[in-house]
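Hi V.,

You were right to ask for the full record rather than a summary. Here it is.
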Amino acid sequence: MLRQALVFTDMDGTLLDHHNYDYSPALNMLDILKSKNIPVIPTTSKTKAELEVLMANLQLNGPFIVENGAAIYIPKYEFTTKPEGCLDESGFWVKKFANPRAHWLELLAQLHDEFIGEFVQFSTMNNQQIIEHTGLDEKSAQLANTRLYSEPVKWIGTPERQSQFVTKLQQLGANVLQGGRFLGVSGPCDKGKALLWLVEAYQSELGHTGTLSIALGDSNNDVAMLNVSDLAVRVKSPSHSFPSLSRSKGIYDSTLYGPAGWSECLSKILICEC
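Predicted structure:
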């Protein structure tokens, strides 16, 4: 039996260029995957609102994972039955792994005085400040602030104080992930847990366990999914080195940056593995 491949992809710095968010080098590979009925599943720190725009541009219409694994959205037409543990929300089966954003804002407020002037967060920035910190255009910056399950934090203090800050948040029950630009503050969730859950949901829907999960990412908040997927692709970044993984097999490292590296490694995988 041929395995059903499932492509779980980070967006910023992976499918999207780190500097300008361009995805044109990946368009041909996206067409190839579509022709082979291989789902491309965005697995990202981005919000649902951001992804809906991006997915329309990329002509993707399947499941997606938002806010570093905080929730999975599965279009209801994608599966014949509701996956276990999902809610029915506006045309999606939704699996949630984290508390609402308000909970994490409350925790950050508790640390404000102790770390005053050492961090800024999305909820206290105006749209122009978000643009300056992200390089997004005005509309995209607005969508980036429509978070439902997490809060991005920009650390501007010393590395030593950042370690103390992260420890304090963890003691309060938060999970803190380092992304390409921000610390993501949320619940006990990550891209790896979301990937494993969705693979099991696909296996239940397909009626067999013959799946091949392929994860692609460039930074530390991708490590969890890169470690648990059947195949891991580390996409070269202009801003940092490859993330360290606990695995030693099934790893592909791109020689090209961003979406070009994304396509480079998937081309190799389609030849060797699929």
